[in-house]
Structures are given as structure tokens and as C-alpha cells.
Specification:
By secondary structure, the chain is mostly beta strands. Helix content is about 0%, strand content about 45%. It has three domains: about 130 residues, Jelly Rolls (Sandwich); about 100 residues, Sandwich (Immunoglobulin-like), CATH 2.60.40; about 280 residues, Neuraminidase.
Length: about 550
């Protein structure tokens, strides 16, 4: 009695191209007594996609023994004779479909053979995976093959419970049963628990494990490793999944804005729900006086540049969005008048300071933990008085700056993240009153031009949003209008553009990047929400 599962672990299923033929697959003869006959069983499954059998034409199966010809196995009730290289009759073989994409080949052996081989022809119009089991009885030819994802991630707010599904796929020829019970807690945890276990899973089928994560009271990352207990007998199949949960302060996709408060001073920070537009005020602390821009760090803290904080010296402040607590990150020279902030992929802070370095301004890199400042790109012969900075988020991403030329024309400039070297990206006509930058999913540079003036073919008093090709510098106006005075920009995961519009009919506006169509998400409503001018979106993942 015995069986062998193929392909051997840790290899995955054998993939055969559309209308393709596999290489010869070798196996040992496994034949036992069944009602007085020597019979070998080969159960084979043609794998579908989407947790269902694939349907379509049956695969063609050829068998050979002892170096003899590869014989096409006939479908029941017909049989095919298999001979070795010397022409000796060894066995008869027949195949029948068993459902769920499973096929059973019975080999009735007349004399012992060796060097058995199988070749598969996939008659489907797309590639298919195959697994099979060779056994000396039909029961043992029915073996499950467990397949779990290697990782599953969770995201939760502090103290929240979230449940996620872990798909369990069966790539084998027999039913798969999960032995773990509800309530099992995968180590090392804590926080993860099985709350749902699927029943038996048929070949070519899937089940869903339900895993609940209870987030701790403080943000951070929790990890557990779940190794499924099942009746799959083959070591090396993917039965282990790493569960990783990030406890967050803000839900991914949350919009954060800065705008004027009731007294007309720009000191209020709001969270805006990305679907409903509902707003929640973030409590103010003692440090922030005149915030100018906002970014979100890897721990969901708000990193805020402030023009007048720290006795008028300006600086960078970290704001906890759940408590409103504010802590100093950096202030003092070379920071003087920080106007814009962006985060690099490694968490380093970039600040565009309008009057640093003796008045010409420049871009300063700030260490997020120590607050140490490094002069990356001081203003001078290429640009002066920068008002906005944006960065591509991948490692070593390009840095873009909105600033003036020494002659007074407004341009977009590129800064090398390693050397600080400065080059001009855009030419004439100059922008009129550009106030904000963002980088879209394709690397395009988005510019919020607050108030157009005459010249260059643009209408007086119309605000606009432009897109600049990062390679050629060519610009395209995506949207314009009056009243419409964009002050801040952010890009959502699906590519939609968020605009902070400080007009009385503005607020937070969502724009289609293809058509330029604008929809008000959260309208300006009196003294409690007016004049939003800086905006950011909480990223889906850390960083």
C-alpha cells in the first residue's frame, strides 16, 4: 500500500501551455491487489482559476513503460495497451472523468514494469496547472494539496477589531479538511484568532478561514504565523501564512486639511472622510501658530510646517491626530520661513523655506527623529524663494520645487536628491501665482496656480491646475474656472486629484484627472470650515 504526490514538493503544479505538451513525467510502479488483479491508479486534476473547475476539453494522457512508446490512454469503457521497448505487453489502461476537474487512470498490470512515464497534452486555449497522485488503490490516489497565501495584512485603528479572510485552496485530487478549531490563536501574536474555519474543500475548490485581529491601544505592527493543520500528507506544500497587522492612528485614505478658524487665523487642522466629506477637527496645541503645509509620516503623525512657531523662527511640528498633542521636530537656522513639506521614501523631511540661506530661500532636509537640518538646495543662481516642494515616493525619487528664477519668473525646478543639483523643468509662459505641488501616479507634476493674471493665453482671475511632463516640461491645463482658487493639492490612490480651494464656494474638491471635472467633496460652510489651503491623503501603507 502506498502513494506518491506529484510534482514533488516544494515544486508547485506542473503548468502546461495552451495547446501544449508537457515533458515526460517519471514515476514508480505502485500496484496492489484489487479483486485479484494488479492495478495501479493515477488520479490527475486539471486546475482552474477562481476556485472552480476549468471545464473545457479533457486533457490527453499518454503512458509509456520501459522505454516503450507513449500510448494515448483511452476514455472508459475503451482501454489502451501499453508495451515496453521490447514489445512486451505490460498493461491495459483506461481513463474516466470523476468531476471537479479530476481524472482517474486505471492501469491493469499483466507483468511488472519499470521506468513508467506520463505525458500531458493541455487542449485548453489557456495554460493549465496539473497535479497527480500515483497509488496502489483508488482511495490513496485521492490526496489533498493545501495552498495558502504567503502573507495576509490587516489595518485597524487602535482598539478596533477587524476580520479578514484567508483563502484556502485545494490543488489536489481528494477533499481537504482543516483540523484547526475556532478560537485557535496563532503564535506569537497576540491579537490574532481564528473565528471561522471552512468545511471540507473539494478539489479545484476554495474555503475561507476567518481571522480576527484585535488592535492594541497604541499604533504599531503585530505579526503572527499561522501554520494550518490539515489532512494534506505532503511536507513542503504552502500551509503557512504570515499575518501582519498595522495598528493605525488614521484610516488609510483619510484627507487632512489646514484652513482658517473662526477668528480668521490659519491654525485649524481637520480630518475629512474620503467618501462622505464629514469633517473632524484635530485638537490644537500650544506650538502651532501659522501652519503652512502638512504631510503624513509612517506612524500616521501629521508633520506640519509652521511659519511663525517657536517665537517667530518657524519650524516643523509633529501633531498626533488622535490626541492633538504637538511636539517640536526642528526649528532655528537654516529654517526661517518654511512654506511646504514633503516626505522622502525613507522618512526624511523636505522643507521648502522661502527666505532661508540669507534671504534666497532653499530646500532643507530634516531628520525626522533628531531634527538635524541639512542644506540640500540653497537658492541662488537657478531659483530663489521656493514656495512648494514635492517628491516621488519611491527610493531616490525626484524632487520638484516651485520657485522663482532670479529674474522673477515662476517655474518648476528639479532637485537631485543626492547632490542637490538644480535644473529648470518648465519654461515660458511662467506660472502666475503657483502655491502647491504634487506628483501623480505616473510621475507627472501637478501645480495649483491660485490666481491667473493676463498673459500667456490665460484668462485674468481664473485659478488653474496644471500637469507638467517630468521629462519634457510640457504643461497641460487640467482644469480652470472662476471662482476657483486652488491652494493645495493631493493625489488619491485611484489617481483622483484633491484640491484645497479657499473661495467661499470652495472647500475640498475632487477632480477627475482625465476630464478635469470637479466635484465638491466637503464644501466651505461658514466660520467652522473656510479657506482650506493645504491638503494631504493618508497613504495605504507606512511611509
Amino acid at each position: 500500500m502506498g502513494f506518491r504526490v506529484f510534482p514533488g514538493a516544494p515544486a508547485g503544479p506542473l503548468v502546461v501551455a495552451a495547446a501544449g505538451t508537457s515533458d515526460l513525467q517519471e514515476f514508480q510502479e505502485l500496484a496492489g491487489m484489487v479483486e485479484g488483479d494488479l492495478t495501479m491508479f493515477v488520479r490527475l486534476v486539471k486546475l482552474g482559476s477562481g476556485c472552480a473547475p476549468p471545464g473545457g476539453p479533457d486533457p490527453l494522457i499518454r503512458l509509456s513503460v520501459g522505454g516503450g512508446p507513449a500510448v494515448l490512454v483511452a476514455m472508459f469503457p475503451d482501454a489502451s495497451s501499453v508495451h515496453d521497448a521490447q514489445g512486451n505487453f505490460v498493461a491495459d489502461a483506461m481513463c474516466d472523468a470523476r468531476g471537479d476537474g479530476v481524472y482517474r487512470v486505471r492501469v491493469f498490470i499483466a507483468r511488472p514494469g519499470s521506468a513508467w512515464q506520463m505525458r500531458l497534452l493541455n487542449q485548453d486555449a489557456e495554460p493549465r496547472g496539473f497535479t497527480w497522485v500515483v497509488a496502489d488503490n483508488d482511495g490513496e490516489a485521492q490526496q489533498p494539496w493545501i495552498e495558502l497565501p504567503s502573507t495576509v495584512t490587516f489595518a485597524a485603528l487602535a482598539g478596533q477589531q477587524v476580520t479578514s479572510s484567508v483563502r484556502v485552496a485545494n490543488l489536489g485530487t481528494g477533499r481537504l479538511t482543516i483540523a484547526d478549531a475556532v478560537g485557535f490563536r496563532p503564535p506569537p501574536g497576540p491579537g490574532f484568532e481564528l473565528v471561522g474555519v471552512p468545511g471540507p474543500v473539494s478539489p479545484n475548490g476554495c474555503g475561507e478561514l476567518q481571522v480576527r485581529f484585535t488592535a492594541p491601544s497604541t499604533p504599531g505592527t503585530s505579526t503572527a504565523v499561522y501554520t494550518a493543520s490539515s489532512d494534506d500528507p505532503t511536507a513542503g506544500h504552502n500551509r503557512r501564512v504570515t499575518l501582519t497587522a498595522r495598528t493605525r492612528k488614521l484610516p488609510a485614505g483619510t484627507i487632512v486639511t489646514i484652513q482658517q478658524n473662526e477668528a480668521g487665523n490659519a491654525i485649524d487642522i481637520f480630518q475629512v472622510h474620503p467618501q462622505t466629506g464629514a469633517r473632524t477637527r484635530v485638537a490644537a496645541g500650544a506650538l502651532s501658530v501659522h501652519p503652512t503645509a502638512v504631510a503624513v509620516d509612517a506612524d500616521d503623525n501629521l508633520m506640519v510646517t509652521d511659519f511663525d512657531a517657536f517665537g517667530g523662527a518657524g519650524g516643523v511640528i509633529r501633531v498626533d491626530p488622535t490626541t492633538g498633542n504637538q511636539t517640536k521636530v526642528a526649528s532655528g537656522q537654516p529654517l526661517v520661513s518654511p512654506r511646504s513639506i514633503a516626505l522622502e521614501a525613507d522618512g526624511a523631511i523636505l522643507v521648502a523655506d522661502e527666505t532661508a540661506f540669507g534671504g534666497n530661500g532653499g530646500v532643507i532636509r530634516v531628520h525626522p527623529v533628531t531634527g538635524a537640518q541639512t542644506a540640500l538646495a540653497p537658492g541662488g543662481s537657478v531659483f530663489v524663494h521656493p514656495v512648494a516642494v514635492a517628491v516621488e515616493r519611491e527610493a531616490g525619487g525626484a524632487i520638484f520645487v516651485l520657485a522663482r528664477t532670479p529674474g522673477g519668473a515662476t517655474r518648476v525646478f528639479r532637485v537631485d536628491p543626492g547632490t542637490g543639483a538644480q535644473t529648470t523643468l518648465t519654461g515660458d509662459p511662467p506660472f502666475s501665482t503657483p502655491l502647491a505641488l504634487a506628483v501623480d501616479a505616473n510621475g507627472g507634476v501637478l501645480i495649483a496656480d491660485h490666481f491667473q493674471t493676463a498673459g500667456g493665453g490665460f484668462t485674468v482671475s481664473q485659478g488653474s491646475v496644471f500637469r507638467v511632463d517630468p521629462t519634457t516640461g510640457q504643461r497641460t491645463r487640467l482644469t480652470t474656472g472662476d471662482p476657483f482658487h486652488p491652494m493645495g493639492l493631493a493625489v488619491e490612490w485611484d489617481g483622483h486629484i484633491l484640491i484645497a480651494d479657499d473661495t467661499a464656494v470652495g472647500g475640498v474638491i475632487r477632480m477627475d484627472p482625465a476630464t478635469g471635472q470637479r466635484t465638491t467633496l466637503s464644501a466651505a460652510t461658514g466660520p467652522s470650515f473656510r479657506g482650506p489651503y493645504a491638503i494631504v491623503v493618508v497613504p495605504a501603507a507606512a511611509g
